[in-house]
Amino acid sequence: MELAAGGFSGEQFREACAELQQPAVAGADWQLLVETSGISIYRLLDQKTGLYEYKVFGVLEDCSPTLLADVYMDLDYRKQWDQYVKELYEQECNGQTVVYWEVKYPFPMSNRDYVYLRQRRDLDVEGRKIHVVLAQSTSVPQLVERSGVIRVKQYKQSLAIESDGKKGSKVFMYYFDNPGGQIPSWLINWAAKNQSRTKQEAQNQRDLIQFSANPNTLQ
């Protein structure tokens, strides 16, 4: 779906809310990859790229929806815990707030960078307060591609959060990106799968938040 003028459409926000209530993984080739600590991670093969799309469902206990959404939007905080961030900031471009993000890749691979739109809405859906964050790659003349860094041009993410009725949060997340370059798709998918397995041993909620932020991080 193309971005609406000025950002994301109301329909895109509603779709994320709908998945939070009723996960859409039936009737397609979605595979359950990991189920642990109240979190289920599904993947779907993208036939065009040979890479996987991901959906995450579950409950994060002892983490309120508002706090989780605020942390997720806090780029300065991310720079503290994400060791793969080389550069991360927001910039006003053509009347819109755009995020620039450069990710460190291990030698001999080139770093990747992202330019994307990101919007948050706090919605009231039939009395349910739902925080929704949408992100998608874009292109602006102010942020040109850099020498030695590969621009990720296919990136999309959505996140929906509401109360679990207790002290925690019910969460839905969708993620896809294509890092491009000469990295074989099997290697990218292998890294993502092993990142998922690592989360089986997670002892706190922040590890799961980090995975949700970028499941395709190579280690």
Which spans of ≥5 residues are poorly predicted at pLDDT below 50? 194-208, 210-219
Major sheet: 10 strands, mixed
Total helix count? Answer: 5
Percent of residues in beta strands: 35-45%
How many whole angstroms does the radius of gyration measure? 17 Å
> Structural class from helices and strands?
alpha+beta
- The helix/strand series, from N terminus to C terminus, equals HEEEHHEEEEEEEHH
CATH topology: Alpha-D-Glucose-1,6-Bisphosphate, Chain A, domain 4
Instruction: Supply the CATH architecture.
Output: 2-Layer Sandwich
Protein model, in words:
It is a single chain. The chain has a single domain (10-217), classed as START domain (Alpha-D-Glucose-1,6-Bisphosphate, Chain A, domain 4, 2-Layer Sandwich). 24% of the residues lie in helices and 40% in strands. The chain has 5 helices and 10 strands. Strands 1, 2, 3, 4, 5, 6, 7, 8, 9 and 10 form a 10-stranded mixed sheet that branches. It holds the Pfam family START. Keywords: Acetylation, Cytoplasm, Lipid transport, Lipid-binding, Phosphoprotein, Transport.
